[in-house]
Amino acid sequence: MLVSPLRESLVLAVLCGDQRPPDMHSIEKLASVRYTDAAGLAEALRGADALFVYDFLSDAVPGAWHAADRLRWLHIASAGVDPVLFPALRESDVVLTNSKGVFDDSIAEYVLGVVLAFAKGFARSLDLQRETRWQHRESERIAGRRALVVGTGGIGRAIARLLRAAGMTVAGAGRRAQDDDPDFGTVYAADELDKHLGYVDYVVAVAPLTEQTKGLFDARVFAAMKPSARFVNVGRGELVVTADLIDALRAGKLAGAALDVFETEPLPAESPLWTLDNVLVSPHMSGDFVGWRNTLVEVFAANFQRWLDGKPLENVVDKKLGYVPSVR
């Protein structure tokens, strides 16, 4: 268990870039807080007991790690921990926690939204509206359609529950196969993913980024999906071999894709994904509801108080696995 620090000498470094986290007043009363951008991170880390990575898309931590001479705890303001899970951190005694749970329901709502957008042809309706064309069309039902959610953590489970509530049949894919999961019913082993893709209408990627999942969705996987299926990525851009996805969409091997995350962000202007008519692009915002920044600080502040009180921290990441292990 992480030993609670002496309050009078506690130093907290906060990596925040151009925008400081809101509502830090309660924490500032309990510790000496050093706000910094990437350029000043090494200096801020010297003598710091804890690091709050509020700028969770930053890749600055590995380069400044040499200055972390007293660090005992690192918290990242996201569910994904890949920006900070580098070898030196893995091998250290520094405890890593994340913001698991904050974005579960909002990402699930996004996924349901894009499923409905595809089924009801909303993008086409907007195009016709701009052209002032009255063109009657039929739309698809989503009730009875099959979805496979790849990633069985909290976000994947929230997605499964919402899609099932909308009448869809949902299964999961994770590290281990299971037949009686409370949210998915059936969970397939991820290493046998391609065996089950030919039966589903929507494939949702929400797995954490690890050495095992990087490039998981490649040409072989897309070829295993049926041509009428749609692909949704709300996990990490690096889960997908982008060139293979573009080829599959252009060749008609997939009916469409909704993408919120990309290998390169922002998505380059020259990317074909911007102009393919069967692709929905959003700028890494599927979880960002009104007030999410405040909620991230609330999660950190609650864990910070637990640390001061000598209680076990919540959302402790298994640094070998790369995520918070499920208690199920």
Largest sheet features? 8 strands, mixed
- From the alpha carbons, calculate the radius of gyration and give it in angstroms: 21 Å
Which series of helices and strands comes N to C? Answer: EHEHEHEHEHHEHEEEEHEHEEH
Distance between the termini: 22 Å
Under the CATH scheme, which architecture of the largest domain would be assigned?
Answer: 3-Layer(aba) Sandwich
Q: Given the structure, what is the number of helices?
A: 10
Query: Which class best fits the helix and strand makeup?
Result: alpha/beta
At the fourth CATH level, what is the homologous superfamily of the largest domain?
NAD(P)-binding Rossmann-like Domain
Domain tally = 2
Strand order of the largest sheet: 8-9-7-6-10-11-12-13
Rough outline = elongated
Strand content: 15-25%
How are the secondary structure elements laid out?
Layout: E1 11-15, H1 25-28, E2 32-36, H2 41-45, E3 50-53, H3 61-64, E4 73-76, H4 87-91, E5 95-97, H5 104-120, H6 122-130, E6 146-150, H7 154-165, E7 169-174, E8 178-181, E9 185-189, E10 202-205, H8 219-224, E11 230-233, H9 242-250, E12 256-259, E13 279-281, H10 292-308
Parallel strand pairs: 1-2, 1-3, 3-4, 4-5, 6-7, 6-10, 7-9, 10-11, 11-12, 12-13
Antiparallel strand pairs: 8-9
